[in-house]
User: What shape does this take?
Amino acid sequence: MAIKFDMVKAYNHVKWNFIGEMMRKLGFPVKWIQLIMNCISIVSYSFMLNREVCGYIKPTKGLKQGDHISSYLFLICAEGFSSLIDNVVSSGKLSGFKCSKKGPVLSHLFFADDSLIFSKANEANCVAIREILDVYAMTSGQFVNLNKSAMCISHSMSAANGVKLASNVSVNLVNCLDRYLGLPCFIGRSKRKLFSDITDKVWNKIKGWGERFLSVGRKKILIKAVIQAIPIYTL
Assistant: This one.
């Protein structure tokens, strides 16, 4: 089975001590850790009432949204999540997935805000995955958006068993994760079917512009800025 988890980027929930401990585990120098911790802990907030600044709030956790180092700090948090999964797999509580008999064991993949966890479809693995999510949320402050998460099972398993396993992790059961970030997850032999979405998007854009009174120069700008970017994003 494969479970896609959507990690909530809750900037105000990330615990500072978790980031500091992760940097120590990853081997960052002490001075560098102190510098980063000073950058994220120096934040304070005040209120402006009737054009007068009043009040003083000193947060104890959270990251500033839009900060240049926030994305890198979230990568450090993801590394902690990955290490937690590896430890559970090494202990034997969670079994990974093999694409072939001689292939390596695949337990998880991370990309952007999504996390994919692979394991054998049984209740014990579902319980282990749920425990991983609870431990990670408790230690880091990051949570999983279960409403946007989904489970996919093989065709050899019945839908009733799949629904039961999905309920153990509190996610929805879907037939197949056919699309990701607007692109198809599986590539078949028919390239025409694969790239038909690109031509449909291009024609829809052109039809929408055709209903407007645009000059030739504006149409050229839209073609270069929008139309040419659609296939580049796919490739």
Q: What stands out?
A: The mean pLDDT is 79. The two ends are 28 Å apart (CA to CA). DSSP finds nine helices and eleven strands in the chain.
